[in-house]
Amino acid sequence: MVKNVSADLVVVANRLPVDRVELPDGSKGWRTSPGGLVTAIEPVLRANEGVWIGWPGGTEEHLEPFEQDGLHLVPMTMSQDEIEGHYEGFSNATLWPLYHDLVAKPAFHREWWEAYQRVNRRFAEKAAEVAAEGATVWVHDYQLQLVPAMLRELRPDLKIGFYLHIPFPPAELFQQLPWRRQLLEGLLGADLVGFQLSGAAQNFVRLVRQRVGHKTHRDLVYLPDGRTVRAAAYPISIDAAGLEDLVQTEGVVKRSAEIREALGRPRKVFLGVDRLDYTKGIYARLRAFGELLTEGKLDVDDAVFIQVAVPSREQVEQYRILRDEIDRLVGRINGDLGEIGRPAIHYLHSSYPREEMAALYRTADVMVVTPYRDGMNLVAKEYVACRCQDDGALVLSEFAGAAEELRQAWLVNPYDLNGMKQALLDAYRADEKEVTRRMKAMRKTIKQHDVAAWAASFMTELADVPGSHGKTLRPPRDS
Ligand code: F6P
Questions:
Q1: Ligand 1 proximity of 280 Cβ (cutoff 6 Å)
Q2: How far is the CA of 418 from the centre of ligand 1 (A)?
């Protein structure tokens, strides 16, 4: 590729599905970062010679469009000021805590809002530039909520979809935002606005009625210009079959055995895997585990906790505070309760390749996923996908979107420490039959609703929104 691109399908996301890496000869190159989103959209992107617009991270300028593994990628640049204002500021210190039930206090700064608008406009202009006549543009997530309206203004011929990967808050919280009306109007530029859960779609429609004053009926918003916008739920999922294959490869099976051996062959392994984010409830879950050890209900000879905390958004103050708090807590628990060669918690502040994650999921007897609020939580689904023997217990927060589908998990309220301790113990002590019954049911759910089905249902309904523009896309070649 790819100067003068003219694509029938354009994906717009804050990030590109590749990382910038240093090659052995010292030059810079790209490495695919295998996320669920790219796996899902790749077939339809290929069939339509689609392009993906996104930021590769960093401040590097003059990056040209390029092709990677057959995908056409268009890198966007951000200045240091824009990273601070748009990404770290408005996206991750204003919207992120506001949309996650105010787990942390959102900061409202006018200069962050300016940067957010500026970056959204640049993304919209780029999409307008590369989209063919009547193309479909699929915009992703909270960093780009103004793009749909900006893009529609530039290119009324396009079909525009928007998908929010994180929760959409109730009106009572959303209305704190000084720029609430502009964000709602930004989203209304789309023909279809997708959310993880139907409650979020309802929050949105209610806010549009109250704050923008448009007529609504069920999941439809009627705009004065005659356009209709649909708001509905499309719970995202994972590449279940891909993970199931991976977890059974020789390398992963061997690595899992090595991990258990290295842990000193404990009776049960507890596992937590999260980005190091204050919404994830890592502190509370480790505290609950620590108290069970202190009270003698668990013993370091029998039970060990592995917590993988993937470094994330490290320039944002709340994330730095959290890191210090977790460091201190883990130090205290291990100092008080560990023994030589047997720390209570194995704390890994790092990210790992897919193979290593699959080996960890294979090793874990109890998976602990306890966010205070989470759009979906794909870790919970990945764990289930990896349990090919129908064993393994999942302890899951009621406040993760995944809890709407994974009803057979041990569901917990992460604010209730005693309740969480009890659930950890119940999952630890559950008999094999009970664990298998629950896991079988969850695996059935995961297999029926994988990420390909998610992408297909969104794209199909986007094509069908009444009164929307744009031409029909070609289906993936291999379907
Ligand atoms: O869950 C929202 C999300 O933006 C994901 O799309 C992404 O993988 C994750 O958070 C990490 O985000 P960031 O781009 O801030 O590293």
A1: no
A2: 31
Residue 268: partners with Cβ closer than 8 Å, 6 or more residues away: 302, 303, 304, 365, 366, 428
- Residues 216, 257 within the same domain: no
Structural domain including 322 reads 240-448
Coil, helix or strand for 386?
A: helix
Residue the block writes with tokens 């439809």: 220
Q: Is residue 227 part of a domain?
A: yes
Label each residue of 280-305 as H, E or C: HCHHHHHHHHHHHHHCCCCCCCCEEE
Asked if 137 and 190 count as a contact pair (C-beta separation under 8 A), the reply is no
How many other CB atoms are there within 10 angstroms of residue 258's CB atom? Answer: 12
Same domain, 392 and 273: yes
- Tokens 């030589």 locate to 340
Nearest atom in ligand 1 to the alpha carbon of residue 15 is 14
For the chain, what is the domain count? 2
Of the pLDDT bands very low, low, confident and very high (cuts 50, 70, 90), residue 479 is very low
Alpha carbon of 312 to ligand 1 centroid (Å): 9
Question: Residues 294-314: pLDDT tens digits?
Answer: 999 999 999 999 999 999 999
Question: Distance from the CA of 88 to the center of ligand 1, in angstroms?
Answer: 12
User: How far is CA 66 from its chain centroid?
Assistant: 25
Q: Is the CB of 15 under 6 A from ligand 1?
A: yes
User: How do 192-195 and 66-68 pair as beta strands?
Assistant: unpaired
- Evaluate if residue 463 carries a pLDDT over 50: yes
| pLDDT the model gives residue 287 | 98
Q: How many CB atoms lie within 10 A of CB 264?
A: 12
Which pLDDT band holds residue 470 (cuts at 50, 70, 90)? low
- In whole angstroms, what is the distance from residue 408 CA to residue 405 CA? 9
The pLDDT-based confidence of 37 (bands split at 50, 70, 90) is: confident
Residue 341 tokens read as 């060669």
CB 447 within 8 A of CB 178: no
Q: Which atom of ligand 1 is nearest to the CA of 313?
A: 15
Q: Is the Cα torsion angle 323, 324, 327, 328 positive or negative in sign?
A: negative
Residues 11, 45 contacting (CB under 8 angstroms):
yes
Say if 2 falls within a structural domain.
Answer: no
Rounded to 5 degrees, what are φ and ψ at 8? -80, -20
CATH number for the domain spanning 128: value is 3.40.50.2000
C-alpha 54 – ligand 1 centre gap (Å)? 13
Q: Which of 11, 206, 203, 212 is nearest to 98 (CA)?
A: 203
Helix, strand, coil distribution of the chain in percent, nearest 5: 45, 20, 35
Whether ligand 1 lies within 6 angstroms of the CB of 313 is answered as yes
Token pair for residue 198? 């139907």
259 lies in a domain? yes
Bridge partners of residue 194, in order along the sequence = 163, 232
